[in-house]
Design goal:
The protein is an alpha/beta fold. The protein folds into two domains: 56 residues, Winged helix-like DNA-binding domain superfamily/Winged helix DNA-binding domain (Arc Repressor Mutant, subunit A, Orthogonal Bundle), CATH 1.10.10; 181 residues, Rossmann fold (3-Layer(aba) Sandwich). 38% of the residues lie in helices and 23% in strands. It has ten helices and 15 strands. The strands form four sheets. It has a seven-stranded parallel sheet, with helices on both faces. A three-stranded antiparallel sheet has the order 1-3-2. It is globular.
């Protein structure tokens, strides 16, 4: 069982010290290091800290966790929202998938379709769809970002602008009630701003851990997208905001 007062105290200490050690916290709370590591894992899943060897640190607004770390967070939530997002897809569509763990989860479901034209800036997504389906796959050019095998930069934007997509599926770094849709890097934000202008339907895929989470770049207002797909019902505040901005919301 997770102990909320202990979680709150971990975050209080982290905000003061910027870094905490699991052994020190275990001794302070009178629990095992394994218990503290479980606390770290839970808080990391909420985006509140980042686990490092022997402890944890506060995440930076302009620093996203590596793909292999994000792949371990909220995996069931991503599977659920990916299944929900497939309701929007039909055989024969032209689809853009940008890079991210949620779009990668959706890519696994898209292997069940046929005659799709899939354009992506993710090498992982391209390989998955190409190796497990007969759908056409087009990979953007760009500079390779090694921590997630994404292609980014001006060549990516120039290529993406050449086409018009039936639907563009995009991940997002954070969703703030006041600031809207947010990203860690400007390159991601620029691509998503480009995609919403070149598609019939623009779709953000976001698990519930992204809500109330601020990152570095103000990417888009809610009104710029067509649809938001998540893994659970929104809070009253977010639901009201999406209704106000005429964003369709889908969840299991």
């Amino acid at each position: 069982m997770l102990n909320q007062p202990r979680l709150d105290e971990i975050m209080r200490l982290l905000s003061q010290q910027q870094r905490v050690k699991s052994i020190d916290l275990a001794n302070s709370f009178g629990v095992s290091e394994e218990t503290i590591r479980r606390d770290f894992k839970f808080l990391e899943g909420l985006g509140k800290l980042r686990r490092v060897h022997g402890g944890a640190i506060l995440p930076r607004l302009n620093e996203e966790q590596p793909l292999q770390v994000r792949n371990r967070i909220k995996t069931q939530a991503k599977v659920a929202l990916a299944a929900c997002a497939t309701q929007l897809v039909q055989d024969g569509m032209a689809v853009f998938l940008d890079t991210g763990t949620t779009t990668l989860a959706l890519a696994q479901r898209l292997t069940e379709f046929s005659k799709l034209r899939v354009v992506t800036n993710s090498l992982d997504i391209a390989q998955l769809i190409a190796h497990h389906s007969d759908n056409d796959v087009v990979v953007t050019p760009g500079d390779l970002r090694r921590n997630d095998n994404a292609l980014i930069g001006p060549h990516t934007l120039q290529f993406a602008r050449q086409f018009h997509y039936d639907i563009a599926f995009m991940g997002i770094g954070g969703i703030d009630l006041e600031l809207g849709l947010m990203d860690y890097e400007e390159s991601e934000a620029l691509l998503r701003r480009t995609l919403v202008r070149h598609c019939v339907r623009s779709v953000i895929l976001a698990d519930d851990g992204k809500f109330g989470h601020r990152t570095f770049v103000n990417t888009l207002p809610f009104s710029a997208i067509s649809t938001l797909v998540t893994n659970r019902a929104l809070s009253n505040d977010f639901a009201a905001r999406m209704e106000h901005d005429r964003v369709d919301v889908l969840h299991p």
